[in-house]
Design a protein that fits this description.
Length: 442
């Protein structure tokens, strides 16, 4: 595959969450299903890397380097990664960034082709890249911004919080909702609600104070998260709680990429126009996020989320964030528990269908109705058992509601299976020689 001009990339950025005229958001379920329900993807645990933060601060630009790295590691399978950044003259392709020609719209974009990677354990995972547009953009309302930021936090396993120049108190305030959520969720789910929060400070100007990279970043973060006397009470709590919400909180300081990147309208992303110090930092940052040993699987309630499960979470969260006001942490928790039960429900239905398909599918011979009923009962019991053995959030009451739903759906499916089986019986009768002769005589 050629790597000359970026055309090696398979896929494109697709907008899965789009604003509507009433300051709500619409989920493009079809597009999302096309990505998450692909046969080779749907059962893989997901790693969701999202970049969020203010508008026009190089988020999409950065993501396109992630694409380069993932392409090298997942598609070309190369072991020598020194060269992953590519040739000096390659234009930067991928998600639309200012240098690109597409219009910028608020919302959430995913890369249409998940990357299949292996963890050091050999476990295969699907890596999804999520780009957010227009957050904190002055033309959007506060709620639009908060919604996009919230969705990307709730749905990612690695949230890269992309900030310009320094981490300000305001930037921490944006995390308030999730911290409240963490507090409410603490006793209701296993594990911490979120995995990795990566502050990424762009155009860090005072490298003599804290050096570029991860070490300087950690020092800055430590200083910032120190709780000081006389501090605003809210802020104090944000700092105390941030660790309780995320399994890992890190910070990385990026240098300015050079004037060609920030000011030249003809800049096409080629490395020869990017400051070498910036390239050096990219070379450290990107493997820290995307090398096999650093991939972080998405977990909710302590459980690994598969691609097909993520669909339920997308639907629930877009719904809950579509109200007039931002939802409360308790409402978000309910939505999480619903989605969690729903994905267990879908999995149980799948099991029922697969078992029945094996026993009495189109290619299986006609079965006596008593035997068919026995098969149905066996498959139904297994499905119910699996539903219950999957640890879920939301307690008995919610689980019972979904188990009832499972019962109804399974019965509906059984009716169709019975019909199909009866049709086989008619076919059998009609194709026996005696009946055939009788029909001819009549
Ligand atoms: P987004 O809105 O955050 O996704 O920003 P884009 O990735 O579209 O980039 C916006 C502009 O910032 C482009 O002109 C980029 O060339 C430029 N840019 C990319 N990275 C950086 C950076 O680290 N610092 C500065 N100052 N500009 C950058
Ligand atoms: Mg962008």
């Amino acid at each position: 595959m050629t790597t000359e001009d970026g055309s090696y990339l398979v896929g494109h950025g697709v907008q899965v969450v789009t604003p509507n005229s009433e300051h709500g958001f619409v989920l493009d379920e079809k597009l999302l299903q096309g990505i998450l329900l692909r046969d080779d993807i749907k059962d893989l645990p997901v790693v969701v890397v999202s970049v969020a933060g203010p508008y026009r601060k190089g988020k999409s630009f950065l993501l396109n380097f992630f694409l380069r790295y993932l392409h090298k590691t997942c598609h070309e399978n190369i072991s020598d990664l020194d060269e992953w950044l590519g040739a000096p003259d390659n234009p930067l392709k991928g998600f639309s960034w200012r240098g690109g020609s597409d219009r910028h719209t608020t919302g959430i974009h995913l890369w249409s082709e998940p990357f299949k990677a292996s963890l050091p354990s050999g476990q295969k995972v699907a890596v999804l890249l999520m780009d957010t547009q227009g957050t904190f953009d002055s033309t959007s309302t506060v709620k639009d911004n908060a919604t996009v930021f919230a969705l990307s936090t709730m749905l990612s396993s690695v949230l890269i919080y992309n900030i310009s120049q320094n981490i300000e108190e305001d930037d921490l305030q944006h995390l308030q909702l999730f911290i409240e959520y963490g507090r409410v969720a603490k006793d209701k789910m296993d594990g911490k609600p979120f995995q990795r929060l990566q502050f990424l400070v762009r155009d860090w100007a005072v490298a003599y104070e804290y050096a570029y990279g991860a070490v300087g970043g950690q020092q800055l973060l430590n200083k910032l998260l120190q709780v000081r006397e006389g501090q605003h009470e809210e802020l104090k709590r944000v700092r105390q709680d941030i660790d309780r919400c995320f399994e890992e909180v890190t910070c990385f300081l990026m240098p300015h990429p050079g004037l060609k990147v920030s000011t030249n309208e003809h800049f096409n992303g080629k490395l020869s126009d990017v400051d070498p110090e910036f390239q050096k930092c990219l070379n450290q940052l990107v493997p820290m996020l995307l090398a096999s040993e650093n991939l972080v699987q998405k977990k909710i309630g302590g459980h690994t989320v598969k691609a097909k499960d993520l669909l339920s979470y997308f639907k629930s969260y877009v719904k809950v964030f579509n109200g007039d006001a931002l939802p409360t942490p308790t409402t978000i928790l309910q939505a999480t528990a619903e989605a969690n039960n729903k994905s267990a429900l879908y999995e149980a239905i799948d099991l029922y269908e697969n078992l029945m398909m094996e026993a009495a599918g189109a290619s299986a011979p006609y079965m006596h109705r008593d035997r068919l009923y026995q098969e149905h009962k066996k498959a139904r019991d297994k499905a119910v058992h699996q539903f219950y053995s999957k640890k879920k959030m939301g307690g008995e009451e919610l689980a019972t509601k979904f188990e009832n739903r499972l019962g109804e759906i399974v019965e509906e499916k059984y009716v169709l299976i019975v019909e199909q089986n009866n049709a086989k019986s008619m076919y059998n009768i009609l194709t026996t020689p005696a009946v055939f002769l009788l029909v001819l005589v009549l």
